[in-house]
Amino acid sequence: MYFKKLVGKKCYLSPIVSNDAEKFTEWLNDMELLLNLQLYNSVINIESEKIFLNNLSKEHNYSIIDLEKDELLGICGFLDIDYVNQTAETGIFIGNKNYYNKGYGTEALSLLIDYGFKALNFHNIMLKVYEYNKRAKKCYEKIGFQEIGTRREALCRNLKKHDIIYMDILSNEFYDKYKQ
Q1: Residue 133 belongs to what domain range?
Q2: Any idea what the CATH number is for the domain that residue 93 is in?
């Protein structure tokens, strides 16, 4: 069962449900999906995923749910939270490929970012994206994230070196650009 914590027009964010471990395990064993995640070379089974989801659920991490169908499509959340300096890192994963390129990731992440600025009192939110993940980078730029640096050839995928791009957004930039 999902709970509507943060609600948009297409989707909502719900506290994580450990019963979704099987679906996440399915997605996280799809090598195409894993190309964009740090978990690329991890072994993921249902038991380890239940433990992982249980740990994630203790912090500010949420399942992304289709508002109309109540269908799980991914997860997003914050990590490396620093309440003193009002900073955090964010991440998002859409596992259900039927929801790609339809604005669900942009809406889910904007709901999370809005919550981070208003409810958690963050001032700066950062993320990392692999240079070849053009779809994700476009989503982040649409929300208002800006490149702040590049870690050159810091990622090895399929015998090739890739850059990791660092992006961040300040609260005033988010509200000026995205939340008119």
Answers
A1: 6-177
A2: 3.40.630.30
Between CA 8 and CA 24 the distance in angstroms is 23
pLDDT of amino acid 29? 85
Cα–Cα distances in angstroms (integers) from residue 155 to residues 28, 40, 73, 128, 145, in the given order: 19, 11, 26, 12, 21
Hunting for tokens 């800006």 — which residue is that?
146
Q: For residue range 18-59, what is the model confidence (pLDDT) as tens digits?
A: 889 999 899 988 878 777 776 656 677 888 889 889 888 999
Residue 41 CB-density burial (10 A; 0-12 exposed, 13-18 middle, 19+ buried): exposed
How many structural domains comprise the chain? 1
Q: What is the mean pLDDT of residues 102-112?
A: 97
Whether residue 166 is contained in a domain is answered as: yes
* Chain mean position to CA 73: 11
Beta strand segments in 25-159, E: 61-66, 72-82, 87-94, 124-130, 146-157
pLDDT of 172 = 94
- Residue type for position 160: K
More confident residue, 39 or 78: 78
Work out the angle at residue 8's Cα, subtended by the Cα atoms of residues 6 and 14, and round it to the nearest 5 degrees. Answer: 35
Contacts of residue 18, defined as CB under 8 A and 6 or more positions apart, other chains included, come to: 50, 53, 54, 57
Is residue 1 assigned to a domain? no
